[in-house]
Structures are given as C-alpha cells and as structure tokens.
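Give me structure tokens for this 229-residue protein.
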Amino acid sequence: MQGIVIQGPTNYYKELSDHYQHYDNVVWSTWFNEPIKNIDYIKSKGIDVVESALPKFNGYMNVNYQVLSSFVGVRYLETEKNVTEILKVRSDTIISNLDKLLPKLKGKKLSFMALAKEGVRKDCYYELEYVHNSHDYPADNVIYGNVENLSTMFDFQVDELMSIPPEALITWNYLVSQDINFNLNYNYLIDKGISFFLQECLEENVEVNWLKRDVNLVDWYKDKTVYEW
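Here you go.
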C-alpha cells in the first residue's frame, strides 16, 4: 500500500492541501510552532498532521529539520496506516498526475527523480568519504521508496555545521547504513538498487512544481547536460 509524506513547514498549506486531499494515506509532518489556522485547514481536507518539536540544532541548510520531519512522517504512515511504500514530498512541491505516476513507482525500493552530474556546478566543496568539488547529488524534493529504506535514510541528526548539502548527506547515510561504499556515480547507484524516475514523469506528463522557485522540476532535470536519469 502506498502513501504520501508531505514534509516541512506549512507556508503553502492551502495549495498543497487542496491538491493532495485527493489521494489516500497522506500525512503532513511538520512542527509544533506552525500556525493553528494552517494546521486546521490541512486537517479539514482529510490530511493527517503529525507535529514534532524542532531539533535544537538545525544543521547546514536545516538538514536536521528535513530529515526529522521526513522520518517522523514515514514512521507515522508505517505504524498508523500500514503503508509499505511512500512518496516523500517537500512542503513546497506539488506533483501532478500522481494517479498515473504512483502505479509506475510501485515496487521501487529507493528512487530519486535524477542525479546531478559530477562537475556541473563547481561552487561547492565538501568531504564525506571522498572530496566533492561539485553539486553532484540526487535531487531530493521528491523521493520514493519502501518504508524500511526511507526510515534508514532519514534516521540521523548532525551535531556540527558541516557544509555538506542535505541531498548528499541523506544519500550517504543510506548507503553507509547498508554497508555500501559511498559513490555518487549514476551507474554505480543503479547497480546498488537505487533508481531514478524522471523518465516515468516524462511518459505520464507529470509536473513537479517547486513553488518556492516557481519552476517545474521535470523541465529542469530533463537537461541531460546537467542531470542523469
């Protein structure tokens, strides 16, 4: 059984609630300090809400916020709704044609939309198990997978301000937790059972609208000079 976790603050509560109310097993995982009127509106649309205390330390680019709200949402759907596979969506992202996309995602154990190619943007330097001089990591606005893998991926907190993009860090956490060497090469990740679903989005005319940036990520990621998929 599939479900949807909307993860993050409720800034776009009306737009997302009006859209995702049409799907089953949807939970919005957010924070205790969100406006009551936002929470009430979300619930009025039949979407469950689970609220957590903010982590004491946010981490670089709020990574602790992102992974905690994702983890709590995944565990909620697993324990309360018996969901086995989940689409994790950021709370500023709306996906169209989910009735066509979700059946194509069923059975994927862990799947991202796309992977940034190494060396495309060289304005980022960080170290995990090897040195990165580029924004080479999977896109994380939308992630699909089974509850075991998503729980593993999001089950961590950082305690220092490491300038590592959250997208890279959550992928690193999943891989090392599975005793898989950390490597962001596209073919390597495919070989290790991680897939990418931009092709399915294109086949079903799916739009992944990132409201924060006013961009359809399907159009953005399909540029093969920038992303693998």
